[in-house]
Each structure stands twice: as C-alpha cells, then as structure tokens.
Amino acid sequence: KKYIATKTGVKHTTRAGYGTVINLLDKDPFGARRIDKIRLSDAKEWLIRLQQVDKKSYSAIHSIRGVVRPAFQMAVDDDLLRKNPFEFELASVIVNDSVTREAITRKQQRDLLKFIQEDKHFSRYYDAIYILFHTGLRISEFCGLTLSDIDFEEKQISVNHQLQRTRDMKYVIEAVSYTHLTLPTNS
After folding, report:
1. Dist CA 128 CA 162 (whole Å)
2. What percent of the chain is predicted at pLDDT more than 90?
3. Which residues touch 109 (CB under 8 Å, ≥6 apart)?
4. Which single residue of 50, 52, 104, 123 could bond 56 by disulfide (Cβ 3.0 to 4.6 Å)?
5. What are 12-15's contacts with CB under 8 Å, separation 24+?
6. Chain mean pLDDT for the chain
7. Could you tell me the pTM of the whole model?
8. Cβ contacts of residue 144 below 8 Å, gap of 6+?
9. What integer is the mean pLDDT of 72-86?
C-alpha cells in the first residue's frame, strides 16, 4: 500500500489494477506476512500456488508481480531488505499458459460485415465496425474520436486520447501515445 501511495498521476485503469492486487493481498495469507520474513523461495512458492491452486493465469500473475516486485524493491531502496525476493525470471517458476489469439480470417471478416450491413438491427453499426476492422483502433480510441481528429483530405486519423469509463460509471478522456492512422479506402 505504501508503494502504491507513491504512484501519483497514473491512469484510472492502472489505479484499478493496483486495487485488484491490494484486494488479493488483503484476502491471501501471503499478504499478512511481514515483508522482512519473505524469502526468494517463499515468493516463488506463492506464485506457484496462485497458478496451480488458485488457478490464476500467467497473465494475471504477471500483473500481480508487476506491483509486488517494485513494492519489494522500494523496501530494498529504503534499507528494509537486503535484496528483492521477487527479482527472478517469472517464466522459470510458473508455466506460461498464455495462448496466442488468432484474428478472424478475411473471409470471416467479409461475412460478418455483410451480415451486419444487411441486418435490420445491426446495420446502424456497420460504419463503426468497418472502421474498427480496417484501422485497428481500440473501441475506447474510436469512441473518443472527434471531427477534428479526422483529416479527410489526407485520409488520416489522429489518435491522442480515448474515452474510458471508471468503476463508478463516470466517463473520462485519457491521453494516449500520439499516432496517425490511415483511413480505410472502400473495399
């Protein structure tokens, strides 16, 4: 919690991720242990238990460790610990069970767009889905677009913000790394 308190100015999604880790540590017996009593073997055993017993995915454990490791590093920097027990290669301890997602094929994309275009209900979403397919925009980036972000003459979209919804259902605009996308041509 002390480490997270030092992380000011982070995006609300990052803050929500911190909250998830804090909730996990509050419920897990590992979170109640004294920081100076945790050894390298304890850290490894905990992550193994998270995967094998608690059935957390490699990705989830990677995110958890992404908060816990720098928190322990802060304890090292504050001279509370001599070394960080979480400073090891994660893949050497737990199985990377991540699976590569396969995008839909061109034919599947054309079939879906055709269905959407011809459907009485979904046809109103055709333009948006077409743009999403052909630009690679995230839905939050698409929802954050304004007319000033689109240059029809140069066929460019400027993406420098996105529309996000917080846990308490408020909408916020967040900055993103600036990028230019080329508008799709009619296929």
Report:
1. 15
2. 58
3. 133
4. 50
5. 12/164, 12/166, 12/172, 12/174, 13/164
6. 90
7. 0.66
8. 161, 162, 163, 173
9. 95
CA angle, residues 37, 43, 49, in degrees to nearest 5: 125
Encoding tokens for residue 133? Answer: 């397919």
Dihedral in degrees, nearest 10, Cα atoms 120, 124, 128, 130: 40
Q: How many CB atoms lie within 10 A of CB 8?
A: 7
Q: Please write the tens of the pLDDT for every residue from 107-145.
A: 999 999 999 999 999 999 999 999 888 888 889 889 888
Confidence of residue 184 (pLDDT cuts 50, 70, 90): low
Contact (CB, 8 A) for 131 and 114 = no
Query: 């070394």: which residue's tokens?
Result: 83
| Residue 186: per-residue pLDDT | 61
Tokens 């945790």 map to which residue? 38
Closest CA to 64 of 78, 49, 77, 76: 49
Instruction: Give strand ranges (E) for 29-155.
Output: 150-151
Q: What DSSP character marks residue 22?
A: H
Q: Kindly tell me the burial class for residue 103, based on how many C-beta atoms sit within 10 Å of its own C-beta (0-12, 13-18, 19 or more).
A: exposed
What secondary structure letter does DSSP report for 86? Answer: T
SS3 (DSSP) at 98:
coil
